[in-house]
């Protein structure tokens, strides 16, 4: 790995450009500036932030684009990041998918404020923030839903989270959940025996942690 893990990771993912690199550095600086006050991410240093959050968010981008192509989703592609928090994975994806429109759905007023300020600081014209609980978001609007660090889909008895997330999709859209170990994912998804789902391994540059993407199409 090169001395700069962000540059090296973007190059490994074949996503590097000067513009993207500059925007991602600014984004990292915004997270670092407000992290203590807002509790955005738990990291010990910038390298961990880059590997476990920025590159982790970007690692499935080619796969996401291929699914959108396979489903023949026309531009502008509308993607929602539910429970966005610090803007992960939505903001890194938006930086590298400038022709798609992203909606960051976040119920916390403080974190939504951080997202608004960050989008303005980065000058991202393809991102908007909705300060609302996912349950109250308008349904049927998005070609894709992405999320990470959201509670397990089966975390409550008779959990309606999966049904809720799928309701936000247009017909022919898909949900993509960032998850960890295969064993844990299979245990979680066993609670939804009637729901067809796919599991795809994802390789995050310079990170040994096991990562997968759960994909559910409607």
List keywords for this structure.
7-stranded mixed beta sheet; globular; 218 residues; 7 strands; alpha/beta; 21% strand
Provide a descriptive summary of the structure in words.
- With 218 residues, the protein is an alpha/beta fold.
- It has helices at residues 5-12, 18-38, 46-58, 61-70, 90-96, 109-122, 161-167, 182-189; strands at residues 77-82, 100-105, 127-130, 142-147, 169-179, 198-202, 211-217.
- It has a 7-stranded mixed sheet.
- Helix 2 packs antiparallel against helix 5 (90-96), helix 2 (18-38) runs antiparallel to helix 6 and helix 3 (46-58) crosses helix 5 (90-96).
- The protein is globular and about 45 Å long.
- It starts with a helix and ends with a strand.
- The model has no long low-confidence stretch (mean pLDDT 93).
């Amino acid at each position: 790995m090169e001395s700069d893990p962000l540059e090296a990771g973007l190059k490994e993912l074949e996503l590097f450009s000067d513009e993207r690199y500059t925007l991602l550095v600014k984004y990292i600086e915004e997270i670092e500036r407000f992290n203590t006050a807002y509790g955005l991410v738990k990291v010990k240093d910038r390298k961990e932030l880059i590997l476990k959050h920025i590159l982790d968010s970007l690692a499935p981008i080619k796969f996401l684009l291929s699914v959108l192509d396979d489903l023949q989703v026309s531009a502008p592609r509308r993607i929602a990041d539910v429970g966005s928090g610090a803007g992960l994975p939505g903001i890194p994806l938006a930086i590298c998918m400038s022709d798609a429109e992203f909606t960051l759905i976040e119920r916390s007023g403080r974190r939504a404020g951080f997202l608004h300020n960050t989008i303005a600081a980065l000058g991202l014209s393809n991102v908007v923030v909705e300060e609302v609980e996912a349950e109250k978001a308008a349904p049927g609007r998005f070609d894709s839903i992405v999320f990470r660090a959201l509670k397990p889909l089966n975390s409550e008895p008779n959990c309606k989270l999966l049904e809720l997330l799928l309701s936000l999709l247009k017909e022919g859209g898909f949900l993509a959940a960032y998850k960890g170990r295969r064993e844990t994912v299979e245990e979680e998804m066993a609670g939804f025996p009637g729901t067809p789902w796919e599991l795809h391994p994802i390789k995050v540059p310079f990170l040994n942690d096991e990562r997968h993407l759960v994909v559910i199409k409607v």
